[in-house]
Amino acid sequence: MAGLSLKEKLASRPCFGTFLKLPRPEVVHILALAGFDFVICDMEHSQTSEVEARAVIRECVSVSLPVVVRLPDPSQGVVNRLLEAGATGIQMPRLQTSDDTRHMYKITHFPPNGGRSFGNANVAAQYGSVSNNAYLESENTRVLTVGQFETRAMESPCDSMMDGLDVAFIGPQDLSIDYGVPGNFMDDNVQEHIRKVEMAARRTGTFMGAFAGTPEQAKMYIDADYRFIAVGGDIGMLVKQSKSLVSELHGR
C-alpha cells in the first residue's frame, strides 16, 4: 500500500485512525510509528489553536501520516490555510442539511465546482514549481471531505447530503444524547437513524466512517463495511495506560 493516498486506501480496505488532541510533534511521531492510517486533528473538542494545528499538519506531512482536521465552524480562510499547510482533508461536525455539505464542498474545492480561492505558495504546489492546472487538478482529487452525522435533525431522505462528501461519519455518542439515550448506541431510534445514513451512503457510493471507543466497536463497523474508522484518541490512550500501570504497581 506504500505510496497510495488515503482515498485510494479507503477504496480497498478499512482504514484506522485516531483523534489527535495533544498538538505535539512527539505525539504525531508516536502515532505514525504505531501504524495508524490517519489521524484527526481535533479543533472542535481540544484546546488546539490554528497555529498549533498547522504545526501538527506539517509534522504529519514530514512522516507521511495523513491528517484530517475537524473544524467546528469551517470558514474559507481557515480551510485554505490548513489545506495549504498539507492537511489531507476537513471534517465538519453536525451536518443536518444538503446546504451544509454543499458549503463544505465549496470551500474545500477549486472552481468550476467549488469556490476555494487559489494560492500556490505552499508545499502541495511545491511553492509554485508545478503548473497551476496540475495543482488545481491534484488538489481537487486529493482533498478528503468528511461529514459527521450526529444529530437527530437530518434532511430526509438524506441522499442529497452525500453529494460532495467522501465519508459519512457517524458520531454515536452525540447521536445517542440527541435521542435522549446517552451512551445507548443500540437504541432502536439511534440504530434506525444510522441505517438511513448507511443506505444513503450505499446508494451514492460514499464511504462510511465512525468513532469507535474500543477495538470491539471497531470490529462491528468493519463487519458493516465501514472504511474510515477513528478508534479512541491520544488522551484516552494516555489515561488508560497510565491507570493500568499504576494499578499494576499497586498490585490491583
* Stretches with pLDDT under 50, minimum 5 residues: none
- What is the distance, rounded to the nearest whole angstrom, between the alpha carbons of the first and last residues? 42 Å
Number of strands: 8
CATH class: Alpha Beta
Helix count from the secondary structure assignment = 10
Global Rg: 18 Å
Structural class: alpha/beta
Overall pLDDT, averaged? 96
SSE sequence, one letter per element: HEHEHEHEHHEEHHEHEH
Outline the biggest β-sheet.
8 strands, parallel, barrel
Features:
16% strand; 8 strands; alpha/beta; TIM Barrel; 252 residues
Notes on the protein architecture:
- The chain is an alpha/beta fold and 252 residues long.
- Helices cover 44% and strands 16% of the residues.
- The chain contains ten helices and eight strands.
- The chain has helices at residues 6-12, 25-34, 50-62, 76-85, 98-108, 132-142, 172-178, 188-204, 215-223, 234-249, and strands spanning 15-20, 38-42, 67-70, 89-92, 144-149, 167-170, 207-212, 228-233.
- An eight-stranded parallel β-barrel has the order 1-2-3-4-5-6-7-8, surrounded by eight helices.
- Strand 3, helix 4 (76-85) and strand 4 form a beta-alpha-beta unit.
- Helix 2 crosses helix 3.
- The longest helix is centred in the last third of the chain and has 17 residues, at 188-204.
- The mean pLDDT is 96.
